[in-house]
## 1
Amino acid sequence: NAKASSLLGYSKQEVLGKNLVANFITQEFRDSVNQVLSSALLGKETANFEFPLFTKSGERKDILLNATTRRGPNGEVIGVIGVGQDITQIREVTDEQERVADDLSRLIETANAPIFGVDVNGMVTEWNRKAAEMLGYAKQETVGMNFVERFIQRENQKSVSDVLQKALSGRETANFSLPLLSKHGQRYTVLLNATTRRDAKGDVTGVVGVGQDITEIKKASERAQRIADDLTRLIETANAPIFGIDTHGK
C-alpha cells in the first residue's frame, strides 16, 4: 500500500510479483519470516512478530507485524495479509533505555561502596559486590530477605526503619550513621544516603542505600575522644595546680 511505499521507498510496480522473503528480508531473518508466513497459510495466525525491513536506500526499519490468513469466498486459503507497525523509533528509545539500565547496573555492581536496595516492603532487591565483600553475604543470600530484621541489630532497627520509611514517602536522608553486623559477627558503621527509588511513572518502588564504610574513621574518632576525656580528667584531678592561657595571655 501507499504507507509501505513511502516507508520502504519501493513503488507498488517494483514489488508486485516478487518473492517477499527472498527480495526484501535479510538472510538472518528469512527462516523466521518464512515460518510466520507458512503458519498463516495453514490458518495459524501470528500477532506482534518483530522483524527488520530494509528500505531501498539501505536504511533499517523495525516492524511489528500481524500476519493474518487471507481466504477466498469459499473459505479457502489464498494468501497472507501482513499489517505492520513501524516501531523503529520506539526500538531506538527502548535500546537506549536498556543501555542506560545496563550501565547503571554495572555501576552499582562495581562501585567501591556498599549499595543495597529494598522494595516497599523492606525486602532486599539490590546487594552489590562491595556489600557482599564487607558483610560476607552473597547477593543470593540477601535478595528477598527483610533488610532491617535480618541485617540490623535489634537496638538500631527502629531508627533504620524510620529512615527507610521516610525515603519511601519521598523524604530522603543523607549521612545517616548505619550500624551493620557481618555474617561473622564483625561490626561496621556505614555513612548512608537513603534515596527514594521510582519507576518510569514516578511511583515509589523502594529505596536505594549508598554507603561509605567509616568503621575505621569512627574507631579513630572514638579513640581520640577517649584520649581527650582522659587528659581532661587528668588535668582536673591532678594533685598540682594547673592552668592554661590563650595567645592573648588570658
## 2
Amino acid sequence: GDRQHRAAAKSEETATMSRGGFSPYDFNGGTVLAIAGPDFAVIAADTRMSTGYSILSRNMSKMNQIGPRTIMASSGCQTDVVTLASQLKIKHQMYQHRTGKPMSTPSVAQMLSTTLYYKRFFPYYAFNVLAGVADGKGAVYSYDAIGSFERVPFSATGSGQSYVVPLLDNILCHKNRQDAPPDLTVDNVVKIVKEAFVGAGERDIYTGDKVEILVITDGAIDKQVFNLKKD
C-alpha cells in the first residue's frame, strides 16, 4: 500500500513538472529565404519577432554577415540565433588571423554545419539559410537543426516556410509547367522575393512588418527594405 502510494505521488509530481516545467527554447517566428542567381544571390528575412500571440519587436533583423560576401539568415529562438552568430563570427575572426584572408562562402557553409553538429545533443533552436557567391556563381545552402546541409537553387525556412516553398518551387524550379522559365535577373529575383513575403504575411501571423532584402554580388552587398502588413 505504501509503495503504491509513493508511486502515485511520484507520477503526480512528474505530471505537475511537465505541465508547468521550464523550457530552454522559445519560438520567435519569422520567415527567411534565399535564391541563387547566375552570378549573385538574394537573401531575405522579415523583421517581426514574436512569442505566442505577442509581437516583441517589429524591427529585429534576422541577418548576420559572416565574412565579406556571406550572409546567414535565421529564424527560431532569438537567443540561440544570437549565440550561434557570435560563435561563427569569432571562428571567422580566428581563421582570418591564422590565414591572413577571409573565409569563402563554401568554407563558411561547412563551418556552420560543424558548429550546429557540435551542439547536436542540445541543439541551437535556429533554422538557417546561407547565401553568398562561390567561384563567381550565386550559392545558397539549406540546413537542418543539427548541421546537415546541401547547396540548393533556393531555400526557405521559418514560420512561413510552407507558404513560400511551393511558390518558389513553381516559379524557380518550374515544376509541372509548360511556359518559358523566368529570366533570373536581380530585379526579377527581388520581385519574386517580395511576392513570396506578401503571400506569407497574408497567412502567417509571425511574418510581417518589413522584409530586409540583400543582393550579394562579387563586388558588394546591396540592401533594400520592403514594407509588409503590420497586423
## 3
Amino acid sequence: MMASASSFASRHGLQSGIKGGDGAKNQVALAYALFICLALAVLHFVADGEFSAIMTMAVMSQSLAMLLLLLQSLTSGSASGISARALGLEALALCCRLSSTLWLDGYLPADASGDWVFQATDICTLLLVLGLLAHVLVVQRSTYQEEEDSMPVLPIVLGSVVAAVVLHADLNSRPLFDALWMAGLFLGVLAVIPQFWLVSKTGGRIEALTSHFIFMMAVSRLLSGIFMWHV
C-alpha cells in the first residue's frame, strides 16, 4: 500500500513537472512569436523597410534576450546559471548608449524607428536588466552562484572606456557623448563574457533559456555588426 502511494506520488510529480515544462515552452514560444510580430510591424509600418532599421532590430533582439532570461528566473524560481556581473555590464552599456540616443541623433537609425522606437526599446531592456538584477541579488539571493560568478569586470570597464576615448567617432559632434556611446558599444559586446565564465565554472552546464539568451544576444550583435560594416 505504501509502495502504491509512493508510485502515485512519483507519477503525479512527474506529470506536474511535464506540465511545468510545457508551460515554460509555451511562454518561450509566445515570446518569440511576439518578437517576430513586433519586429515585422516596426520594419514595415514604422521604418518603411529602410536598411537602417537593422539597428532597431538589433536592440529588439537584445530586449528579447533579456526577457527570456527573466522568464528563466521566474519559471525556475532560481538565479542559478545567471551572471549578475554580466547583467551589470549590460546595464552600464545601456546607460552609456541612452546618454547619447535620448537627446542626440548622431547614432540613431536614419528611418522613423529612430524617432522613438529605438530609444523606447533600450529603456525597456534596461528595466528588464534591472529587474533581473533585483531577482538575482535580492529575491533569489540564496540560489545565486556568487562564488562561481567571480570574473573581474573592472578591466572590461576600464578597457572599454579607454578604447572609447581613443577610437570614438564624431557623429554627435560632442566628444563626451561620442565617447560614451562608443564605450556602451564596447561594453555591450564584452558583457556576455562573465556569463561564459560562470558556465565554465559550473562544469559547462547551461539552462535551456540561458542558451536562448546567448543566442539572441549573438543575433543582436550580428545585426549591429552588419549595419556597421555597411556604413
## 4
Amino acid sequence: QVAAWASASRPSARSDPPGAMGDAALDQLIFKKTEGNKRGIPEAIFIENVEEMCKEREPTEVVGRLQDLHSKYQYMQSSLTAQRSSLKTKLPDIVSALDVVQHLVEKKEEAAESTYTYQLAENIWSKATAAPSDTVCLWLGANCMLEYKLDEAIELLRTNESNARTTLKSLEEDMAFLRDQITTTEVNIARTHNFGVKQRQAAKAKEASKS
C-alpha cells in the first residue's frame, strides 16, 4: 500500500542515467512504511549524508523524487484538512440534536405540553405547542429523515458523537505526523538542491581552471 501511494503519479516508463539506481531503491532511502498508521502515511527519512546518497545518482534525480513525495504529502494534508473541517461542522449539530432529544425525554416525564419557537423561513420564526411524544425524527443526510424512539435516538446520537470525536482525534494526530514529514522532506529537498548547486559550481570552476 505504501509503495502504491508513493508511485501513484510516477510515469509509466522512464530511463535512468547510466549507473543510476532505480526509483524503488531511492524510495527506500527517502521514506519508510510506518507500523500502526491506518492511513498508510509513510515516514520521511532524514538524509544524514547527502554527498553519500548522490555518489550513485544525480542530485536532480533525488530532488525530483523528494518533490514528488512532498506533493503527495501536501495532497494528503489537504484531504485530511477537509475531513477535519467537515467533522468540526457536524459535531456541534450532533451535540445540539442530542440536547434536544434529552429535553424531549424530560418533557415526556413531566407529561405536559411545551411551547417551542422554530424557524419557519429565513428570518421568520413562529411558535408551536407540542404534546409529549415517544418518538422523534432525525435528519440522516441526503434529504433523508427517519423516526426513532427517544431512547433509540439518544443511543444513535451518542454513538455518532463518540465516533466523531474519535475520528477527529485521529485526524489531528495524523495531521501532526504529516506536518513533521513535510518539514523533513522540505529540509531534504533544500540540502540536496544546495549540494547539487555546489557540485555544479565546482565542476565549472574545474573546467575554467583547465582552460
